[in-house]
Structures are given as C-alpha cells and as structure tokens.
Structure to design on (633 residues):
C-alpha cells in the first residue's frame, strides 16, 4: 500500500470530532463516519485492483480481446474447418454423393461398387447397392452417427417442403408438465410404496368434429408452422435443449412438437444455471481472495492494520466492490435471459458465502500454490452442494437445500414461499456470518503474516474465538457456531446418498452423519486442549464437555425447528435428526461422546483425539441404530 493510501485512512473527519458526548446526533455521526471509512477503503480496493491490472494484466487482456475479435470475425466469414474431411465416404450413386457433399465433415468419393472392398478400407463408411457399410472402428461408428443425423435432416427438409404439411406431419404432441405423485414420507415406517394409480388409457368420447388445420385457435398459418419447422430442423437438438433453459422465446407452435422434436425432460438442464450464474460469482471471488493474498505476501497490509479503523470496517470496505460487482453480473444475466429479478434474492447469500470463504482462504494460504489447491477444493465442494440438489427440483424436498433450486423454479414459473427461501438459504447466511466473524477476530498482524502450515493456522484461527477468561462460554459458542457447517455437510451427504438403494443408503448416512457431528463437536475442546493442556483437570474437563454439548444441542434445536422441519418428514431426515423431540437423550449423547474424546486426549495427548472421535462415532451410530430398530425390524 502506498503512502497516498495510508494518508487517506489517517485523515480525520473534523466535523465528527466535535460532537459532544451524549448528543442526539452522536449515533448518526458514528454511522456516517463508519460509512465514510468503509467507502474510503472500498475506493482504495478498486483503485488498487485496477492499478495492478494496468501494470500487468490489462495490456495482455486488451491484446487478447482484440485477437479474439479478429479471430471471431475471420471465423464468421470463412467458418470453422477443423472437422473438414474427417470421414471418408465412398458411394456408387452421384445423387447420394451430392447429398452428403454438403457436409464438410465428409470427404466423398464416387467409386465403382466393385472397388469397395469387404472391409471398406481405406474408407470409414460406404453406401453401395442401397446398403450402408461401416468400418469396424471407432471412427467408423462416429461416421455412421453423423450420416444418420444428416439423413434425418434430409428427411425433415423433404417433409417440410411437402405441399400438404399436415399429411407429412399427421401427429402433433402437446407436452404438459405435472407434479410428481410419489410419496417420500411413507418409507419411514418401512412400508412398500406402490406406484401412484394410473389414469388409464385415454378413450375418445363424444362426436368427432372436423377441425381445420392448423386450428384457428393457434393463431398461426401453415407457412408460419413451415418456417418454424425449418428453423428447428437447422438447430443442433443436443445443444438447443439446454440453451432453451435460458430462453424465453416460444416457438410458433408453443408447447406443440412433432415426434422428432420430442425429447424427455432432463434434470441436468440445471447444470447450465450453475455455469451461467455460479461460475462468474466464483471467478469474481477469486480476485478478492488474491487481493488478500497479495497484501499478505507483499506485506502491504501492515499500513492498513495500523490505521484507526475497526477491523469490521476494513473487511467490509475491501469486500464491498466485489459484492456489488457480483450482484451486477447476476443482474445483467437476469435481464439478458428476461427472467424475474426475484432470482437475485437466493443469489445474495451465495455471494456472501463465496466472499466469506474467499476471505478466510486468502488469510489461511501461505502461497499462491497452496491458495490454488484450497480454492479448487472449495469450488468443487461448493458447486456440488449447489448443483446436485437442484437436479431433483420438483421431485423431492431435498432439492430445496440449494438456493439454485429456487432459480430453477422461478424460470419454470413455479412459485416459492418465504419458508422455502429460508429453508434454502439459511445455511448460507449462517455460515457466511460465522466465517466473517472468524476472519474479523484473526485479521491482525500475527495471523496475517504467519508462515505456519495450514492445519496449525486453522487451529490458531479457531483459538482466536476462545476467551481465556470465559472458556466455557467460548466452547458453548463454538459448538453453537459449528451447527450450520455440520448441517451443510450432512445435507450434502444426504443428497449424495439418498438415491442409493435402501437400507444401504441409510446405513451409510448414519455413519457419515455421526462422524461429521463428532468431529465438529470436538473441534473446540481439541483447540483448547492444545492451547492449555493443564487447564483440563477432571472437573474442568467435565464442565467443558457439558458446555460444548449444550451449545451443540441448542444450535441443533434452533436451526432444525426454525428452518429444516420439512426434511424430517422423510426417512432420511429421520436418520439425521433422531430423537430431537426428547431434550435429555441427545444431550446425554453429545455429552458422553465429548467425554470420550476429551478423556482420550487427556490420556494419550493430541494423538488420542482420532481414537476418541472414532469411539464416539461408533457410539453415535449405535445410538441411531437403536432408535431405528423399529424401522429395521
């Protein structure tokens, strides 16, 4: 950070220094002062980012952008010819040769039928005597699929050009979406769930009326339909089915399609939304992460820490430009696809979660190499959490644990409630708040410029939340703060495992949920033990375990009954949240499991933590199996 930036932070605001104590405008003055400090840091962050880009990245980016425009223009004029002549096609018919010569992927040769050997080498595919012969190679199979697509387009062109269009296309299909009738709550009693009763075949009733084609109610002419068929036949159906997810343009026939155009709905259409909305957010958060990392490596953050500005204001000011930038990107994409602006609401907590994670990762990593590994791991986990649940949109309540599902529902025109919004986003709000708090507690010179390995640094960050004067209250709060992360990990496991056959899915979920909980509950006690092993006398150890168990139970109860009650209607939710209706049973479980971990560490030191967590996890699994006994038998 340069001297100019330092002077900005040190310059006082004279009009705010003369406010007398107890003045009614004091609170307003403090708010305005905080806003000015945050705005100053935000302006400096923007200036610093563009100044770094102007020295190194910006000229290169401009050159690459100009090259991209030139290449795009050249490709638009001359086309892409990477696949030209990829397949060698031999035929004895000049008309067939003329038909497939229009596809540049085929190098067509007109030969005598006797010149085509049985193995058709050196050709990939041959058409002779009314038959098609394919080389028994991967390239030959690919050539056959390409030829089939070209022939399908040829048939579509013939049918579309017919004088009587409705003789060529006698069948039109009207596609309608209906809600799933599957019952996901019945399996919790171990009952077999039959398929929903069928409606039976449709039987014509009444008199048959002559309806002109096309129907006057459609408001289109035959030539309009013909033009629509020509346009659709020229599209790549494998691509258009995905791009239609982001398109609000309706075809001439609306929901009506021909049998060739009909394709089953794919749940993977939501993957487009991941890349369109989530990838730009993650990419932008990388700049925030690199900004934090640059200040640490180049020690540019020391002047900033020496300014009389609160840590929360510093973090907020540095984060603000990236937050508004990400929000602007989402707004532009929303307007581009002509979607309702309400889809920004579920994206806001995701943006905060990405920024909070980027801040913590930037503070933890020691080098850009380590930063890359951690950020890639984070992006994989976060994208999986956002993507996998949205696959089951409109199918299962589990899909609502992802805010992306709300976007899918909005684009489909399906309404969602405030409860759905809370259910989908609460974990992102809470985890973001916890991560920002941990970052604020450790945003100091000792933590930022430390060169310790990753795991010791993580312990140091957690230790920053422990008060030496109030250790039990700290353990209570740490256990309480781990609940959103535990639930997020368990929801991720639930999404991955619930589609497996039962009872395998339930057994794996029991084991996964138990060990996630035990590892999270033990984090505070493990950190305190490393800070001060002498603190753990038998009496203090019991009190510490009781405080952590109580904090975990309180957080579990509050979050579950406030937001996640819907998930308990299924057998999978029953596994995750067993016996929460009885207060003392889960408290005893948490307390006993923590005692096992704590006494293991007291007996064998830090190495005893793994053995203690293993034993506590086994006890937790037995506890869950006991309450599931009625279901298992």
């Amino acid at each position: 950070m340069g001297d100019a930036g330092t002077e900005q932070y040190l310059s006082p605001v004279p009009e705010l220094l003369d406010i007398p104590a107890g003045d009614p405008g004091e609170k307003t003055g403090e708010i305005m002062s905080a806003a000015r400090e945050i705005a100053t840091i935000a302006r400096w962050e923007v200036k610093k980012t563009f100044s770094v880009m102007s020295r190194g990245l910006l000229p290169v980016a401009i050159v690459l952008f100009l090259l991209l425009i030139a290449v795009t223009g050249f490709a638009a004029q001359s086309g892409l010819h990477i696949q030209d002549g990829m397949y060698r096609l031999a035929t004895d018919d000049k008309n067939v040769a003329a038909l497939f010569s229009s596809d540049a992927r085929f190098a067509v040769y007109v030969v005598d039928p006797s010149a085509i050997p049985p193995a058709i080498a050196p050709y990939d595919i041959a058409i002779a005597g009314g038959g098609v012969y394919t080389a028994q190679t991967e390239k030959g199979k690919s050539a056959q699929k390409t030829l089939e697509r070209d022939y399908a387009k040829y048939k579509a062109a013939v049918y579309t050009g017919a004088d009587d269009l409705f003789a060529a296309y006698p069948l039109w299909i009207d596609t309608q979406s209906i809600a799933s009738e599957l019952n996901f709550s019945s399996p919790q009693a171990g009952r077999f769930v039959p398929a929903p009763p069928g409606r039976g075949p449709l039987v014509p009733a009444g008199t048959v009326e002559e309806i002109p084609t096309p129907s006057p109610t459609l408001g289109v002419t035959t030539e309009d339909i013909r033009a629509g068929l020509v346009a659709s036949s020229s599209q790549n159906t494998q691509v258009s089915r995905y791009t239609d997810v982001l398109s609000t343009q309706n075809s001439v026939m609306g929901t009506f399609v021909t049998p060739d155009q009909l394709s089953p709905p794919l749940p993977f259409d939501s993957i487009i939304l991941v890349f369109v909305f989530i990838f730009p957010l993650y990419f932008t958060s990388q700049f925030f992460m690199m900004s934090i990392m640059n200040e640490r490596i180049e020690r540019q953050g020391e002047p900033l820490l020496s300014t009389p500005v609160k840590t929360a204001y510093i973090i907020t000011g540095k984060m603000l430009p990236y937050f508004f930038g990400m929000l602007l990107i989402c707004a532009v994409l929303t307007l581009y696809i002509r979607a309702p602006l309400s889809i920004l609401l579920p994206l806001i907590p995701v943006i905060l979660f990405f920024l909070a994670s980027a801040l913590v990762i930037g503070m933890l990593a020691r080098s850009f190499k380590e930063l890359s590994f951690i950020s890639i791991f984070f992006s994989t986990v976060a994208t999986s959490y956002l993507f996998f649940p949205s696959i089951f949109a409109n199918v299962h309540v589990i899909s609502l644990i992802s805010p992306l599902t709300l976007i899918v529902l909005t684009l489909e025109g399906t309404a969602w409630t405030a409860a759905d919004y809370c259910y989908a986003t609460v974990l992102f709000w809470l985890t973001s708040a916890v991560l920002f708090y941990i970052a604020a507690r450790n945003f100091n010179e000792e933590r930022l410029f430390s060169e310790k390995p990753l795991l010791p640094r993580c312990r140091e960050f957690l230790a920053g939340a422990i008060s030496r004067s109030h250790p039990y209250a700290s353990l209570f709060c740490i256990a309480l703060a781990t609940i959103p992360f535990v639930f997020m990990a368990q929801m991720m496991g639930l999404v991955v495992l619930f589609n497996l056959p039962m009872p395998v899915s339930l057994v794996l979920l029991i084991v996964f949920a138990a060990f996630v909980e035990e590892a999270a509950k033990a984090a505070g006690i493990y950190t305190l033990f490393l800070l001060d092993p002498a603190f753990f006398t038998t009496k203090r150890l019991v009190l510490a375990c009781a405080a952590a168990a109580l904090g975990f139970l309180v957080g579990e109860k509050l979050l579950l009954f406030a937001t996640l009650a819907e998930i308990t209607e299924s057998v999978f939710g029953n596994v995750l949240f067993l016996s929460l209706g009885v207060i003392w049973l889960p408290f005893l479980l948490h307390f006993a499991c923590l005692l096992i971990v704590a006494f293991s560490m007291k007996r064998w030191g830090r190495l005893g933590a793994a053995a203690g967590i293993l034993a506590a996890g086994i006890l937790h699994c037995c506890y869950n199996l006991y309450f599931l006994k009625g279901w298992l038998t």
